[in-house]
Design brief:
With 179 residues, the chain is an alpha/beta fold. The chain has helices at residues 17-34, 50-59, 109-120; strands at residues 3-6, 9-15, 41-46, 65-75, 78-87, 97-105, 125-133, 146-150, 156-157, 173-176. Strand 4 and strand 5 form a beta hairpin. The longest helix is centred in the first third of the chain and has 18 residues, at 17-34.
């Protein structure tokens, strides 16, 4: 499908599944190389990162653990500056190497909030692995350690990303068609 409609918006095919999976494999290889022997804790930010996390874990070649948090900073097609924590952390981070797994980093508000919280919980280190990164929207100076694909500041859906709760199940990524 090259054009799809979700709610009141049209979206065109932007990044096919095979390109996404190659990028995730590259990220997994980088993480496996950098963190061999460290047993990191991957903290997956739900809902959007679930597909990225599943593919990432299939490709990791290191011992590791996983946990989940649910955060939200979007309303419709717009990001907000307010991060809502919907489900919290369920384990101690004391002395752990933590990798935040995010579907997309755009403004960085959610990551800034989460990094600050993890540091207060005495994580040994905090790194970020994001399937997608919008450098033109990014408003902070911290590093995104592992990036699958850099994209422009377009609103996108698919492969875990949604528009008001819909289209997460699409195997490809679509961008909004401006009308």
């Amino acid at each position: 499908m090259s054009i799809i409609k979700v709610h009141d918006k049209e979206f065109s095919l932007y990044i096919p599944q095979d390109q996404i999976e190659r990028a995730i494999k590259r990220v997994a290889d980088e993480i496996s190389h950098d963190l061999i022997g460290q047993n990191p804790l991957f903290l997956v930010v739900l809902n959007g990162a679930f597909m990225f996390a599943a593919e990432l874990f299939k490709n990791l070649e290191i011992d590791c653990e996983v946990s989940f948090v649910k955060l939200s900073s979007y309303s419709g097609t717009q990001t907000t500056t307010v991060v809502r924590e919907l489900i919290g952390l369920d384990r101690s981070l004391e002395g752990r190497n933590v990798i935040l797994v995010e579907d997309i980093v755009d403004t960085g508000h959610t990551m800034r909030y989460t990094i600050d919280k993890l540091k207060k919980l005495n994580a040994k280190s905090v790194r970020i692995a994001s399937m997608l990164f919008k450098p033109n929207a990014f408003q902070y100076d911290f590093e995104i350690d592992y990036v699958g694909i850099e994209i422009p500041n377009d609103f996108i859906i698919g492969y875990g990303l949604d528009y008001d709760g819909h289209a997460r199940n699409l195997p490809d990524i679509y961008k909004i068609v401006e009308q």
